[in-house]
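Lecture notes, part 5. Sequence design as translation. It can be helpful to think of inverse folding as translation between two languages: the language of shapes and the language of residues. The source text, in structure tokens, appears below.
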């Protein structure tokens, strides 16, 4: 496996958020076995459920109610 250049210099905080979101939202869609790409609402729900703030990863203007 070859790493994508755009992700090589990301912070530990970035990778922690990727892992947390993947664990809470899921890694794949069961029916199709395709990799899941969570939307803003799914990320917000995952973070809210853990009492975490999404302010650093999702701007307030991107959230839908």
């Amino acid at each position: 496996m070859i790493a994508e250049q755009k992700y090589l210099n990301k912070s530990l905080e970035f990778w922690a958020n990727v892992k947390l979101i993947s664990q809470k939202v899921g890694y794949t869609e069961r029916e199709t076995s395709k990799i899941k790409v969570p939307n803003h609402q799914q990320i917000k729900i995952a973070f809210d459920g853990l009492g975490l703030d999404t302010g650093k990863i999702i701007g307030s203007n991107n959230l839908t109610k």
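The translated text above is only one of many valid answers, since several sequences can fold into similar shapes. The chain has one domain: 5-62.
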